Amino acid sequence: MIDRYTWSGGTEAMLRFGPPTGVVVIAILPLLEEANRTRGLAVTILRHLADRGIAGALPDLPGTGESPLPTDALCLPDLRTALATAVRSLNRPAVTLAIRSAALLDADAPMVARWLLAPQGGDDLLRAWRRLSTGEMVAGNAVAPALLAALPGTDPVASDVPTRVVRLDTDPRPADMKLPGAPPWHRSEPDTDLTLGTALADDIATWVRRCAA
Q: Which branch of life, at top level (predicted)?
């Protein structure tokens, strides 16, 4: 189902999955080109969760998806505010599912737990963007100076809610669990690893029932 939420900067779309009551898993995509490469994976995960009776939502944040806001208008406070508004609009206990740089965005969202896939800090994100940059463009996207200025030293915010970190087994950094699979955010074209999507959904379902029962 396609839903919408309204924040201080406008109205954005939000895909909804699963039952109309109970805990809802909010999928948050990484910034810029990685959002296109991971959207299919996020939808696959949310559909699997819906099959298990767990609701899900995938909001378009400002400057992403079908949002009318251009990417060069993005700033970190607006992204965080819009996400928090989207979560509040559902009026249900929420677990955030943040992929990569999306782990920088849920600091203000009301949630009962977090689940992070390969969380990426601001310094790592900037290094990746510099490799993709051409002049003032990053992978074909104009990026606001305010967003670039906010990223150095910014890490996924420590939270007092239960947090689980999952990484792929090619990632040497610590995690609560590691799974085999190729990083979808590194693919040259959007593609979905159904086996990985199912494994991630299984782990999220267990985490949701542990933290939000």
A: Bacteria
**8 Å CB contact between 122 and 155:** yes
Q: What is the separation, in whole angstroms, between the first and last Cα of the chain? A: 25
List all residues 6 or more positions away from 130 whose beta carbon is below 8 Å from its beta carbon.
Answer: none
Q: Which CATH number fits domain 2-212: 3.40.50.10490, 3.60.10.10, 3.90.79.10, 3.40.50.1820?
A: 3.40.50.1820
**Confidence label for 180 from pLDDT (cuts 50, 70 and 90):** very high
Alpha helices of the chain — where are they, by DSSP H?
33-51, 76-90, 122-132, 145-150, 194-212
Nearest CA to 105 among 86, 88, 83, 127?
Answer: 83
Which has more pLDDT, 118 or 148? 118
**Range in 31-45, 73-87, 126-140 with the lowest mean pLDDT:** 126-140
Tokens 């593609």 belong to residue: 191
- Give the helix, strand, coil percentages of the chain, each rounded to 5: 40, 25, 40
* 128 has a pLDDT exceeding 70: yes
- Collapsing DSSP states into helix, strand and coil, what is residue 146? helix
Return the DSSP state at 51.
Answer: H
